[in-house]
Amino acid sequence: MVKFTFVVNDEMGLHARPAGALVKEAAKCTSKVTIRKGDKTGDAKRIFNVMGLSIKAQEEVEIIVEGEKEAEEATALQTFIKENI
Amino acid sequence: MNKVYGKSILKGIAIGNILFYQKGEQSVKRVKIEDIQAEIQRYEEAKEKAVEQLNALYQKALKEVGEMNAAVFEVHTMMVNDGDYIDSITNIIETQQVNAEYAVATTGDNFAKMFSEMDDDYFKARAADVKDISERIVNILCGREYGDGIGEEPVIVVADDLAPSETVQMDKDKLLAFVTRHGSSNSHTAILARTMNIPALIGVDIREEWDGKLAAVDGYDGVLYVDPDEDILKKMKLRKEEDERTRSLLQDLKGKEDVTLDGRKIKLYANIGGVKDVASVLANDAAGIGLFRSEFLYLETDDYPSEESQFQAYKTVAENMAGRKVIVRTLDIGADKQIGYFDLEREDNPAMGYRAIRICLDRVEIFKTQLRALLRASVFGNIAIMYPMIISVDEVRRIKEIMDLVKKELEVDGISYGDVEQGIMIETPAAVMISDQLAQEVDFFSIGTNDLTQYTLAIDRQNMKLDNIYDSHHPAVLRMIQMTIENGHKHGCWVGICGELGADMTLTQKFIEMGIDELSVSPSYVLPVRKRIREIRANSMTVE
């Protein structure tokens, strides 16, 4: 299991567009990708799970990657998030 | 005549007939079915067709309203393909042995409810997206076309609410305005209306009986007139013609150079107060950003903004301006702009008090964080840094020492940064008087005429009683400007104006004669000032 956190900088929070971008990227992973905000978690490959967390600006979010390729996929996701979200 | 009020999304006038927009029959019957597998098959085929339609809409939106706005349809596709959404639908079909239409509509309602119960306005508004995709699938299942009912004549579309897919599908040439009962300024429809540049009113108490009636939308005052009387109609028509004249005149100026009749080129930039304003800078075709007020970063948060969040904001602006100059003014608070967590003491005379660069040179860590974020962002575009409220050469030297320190720290951390021009605001008489010395220290001057007027004339700009003698055309102010330009040029500094006077078109000629290199104005003034620049000669008169 590999985890990392990030803070949503967009002033509208993790709104439809970035949420969609994240889901699209997570869907490329063979690992199970979970998104967590506080005590709520969701499947990062499912748009309603991600948007259902109602992640607002400056909130901290954790991504948990579990699977055979977890290390490389977590790194790829982290890079993608840094550059796009 | 009916006169109703709403919240205006875009300033403008529209006159035309109302089309009362109704969605297809939405009531979905619950029907028991025999063959569960066949029903799931039916649903899956409809789902595939919905995805095809959404892809086509995405392509259409991409061409008409750009990638940012088109992305909503990509998200809609994801929603249609979402595992939980699909599971819920197939589950209802299987366990309740009901028709696919009912299963989709019920699931849509449930998921929409999840959004409408959220505590954030933006996420609340997403319930409309869920309903929209569910309606799309239901319509396909029922074999209904997703038509808009718009004929040959352009119309004012009046509706309870409009889904993004509905607005994008409508033929843009046939749309005069949107009027809706629901919707928020955050809704995609509002965003699209702004992008498409058509008037829109929301929160209007609409009535179905208006269908087909003549109406006028006044986007300036947020009023809808149904069956307007002669007087109103005449007034609206005049206003509209005036609008169109100015607009077409100004639109013609897009892409044109900011150059006088005798060939003097002026840098015509725009002032912004946040990342959001970049869109209007680009829409108004400014050649750069002459004043990016960085205060908003500090005003919008409850604590000091992190280096990372500042970096992101500067980077976004720099990237969007694609190589055009972005001049960021470092933190300018104090005086009339207060921020709680800075814990500033109350002052009797804040305009002359602890503010702007005085705070930054005292609380150096705050200043260093901002400079570090700016330097990091400079790799992504053409960033310049400007310091406010300068009164001495010593201040500028101290700033440069801090700047060198920040650069060294970045080098140690292995973080790259670009070349940034550094300049100062000229807004105190002291800075004007020593502008020859200051010019030797920096790359450019930008004259802040609001403060310069207040300090030169010793008139508090907050005091309403003194409004009648607050004269920014005062010869003392104009001489200050002239002196600044002359001293700047003598020592290789370019000189601009970023205060309100920059957009004062009665002075454009004078400023250009004085030799001004740059004018930075609110985005909406860019094209009018461009028009003015292009009508005058730089050397038509001798300066007093």
What report would you give on this structure?
- The complex is a heterodimer of chains A (85) and B (544).
- Chain A is an alpha+beta fold and 85 residues long.
- Helices cover 39% and strands 27% of the residues of chain A.
- Chain A is built from three helices and four strands; from the N terminus they run βαββαβα.
- Chain A has a four-stranded antiparallel β-sheet.
- In chain A, α1 packs antiparallel against α3.
- Chain A is globular.
- The two termini of chain A are 23 Å apart.
- With 544 residues, chain B is of the alpha/beta class.
- In chain B, 46% of the residues lie in helices and 14% in strands.
- Chain B contains 20 helices and 16 strands.
- In chain B, the strands form two sheets. Chain B has an eight-stranded mixed β-sheet.
- In chain B, α1 packs antiparallel against α2 and α3 runs antiparallel to α5.
- The radius of gyration of chain B is 29 Å and the shape is globular.
- The mean pLDDT of chain B is 89.
- The interface between A and B is medium-sized, with 23 and 27 residues.
Question: Largest interface, and how many residues on either side?
Answer: A-B, 23 and 27 residues
Measure the end-to-end span of chain A.
23 Å
Which structural class matches the secondary elements of chain B? alpha/beta
Name the helicity range of chain A. 25-40%
* Number of beta-strand segments of chain A: 4
Q: Give the neighbour order of strands across the main sheet of chain A.
A: 1-4-2-3
Q: Cα-atom Rg of chain A, whole angstroms?
A: 11 Å
Overall number of strands of chain B: 16
Q: Calculate Rg of chain B over CA atoms.
A: 29 Å
Shape by Cα distribution of chain A = globular
General form of chain B: globular
Mean pLDDT of chain B: 89
The quaternary organization reads as heterodimer
Uncertain stretches of chain A = none
Main sheet of chain A? 4 strands, antiparallel
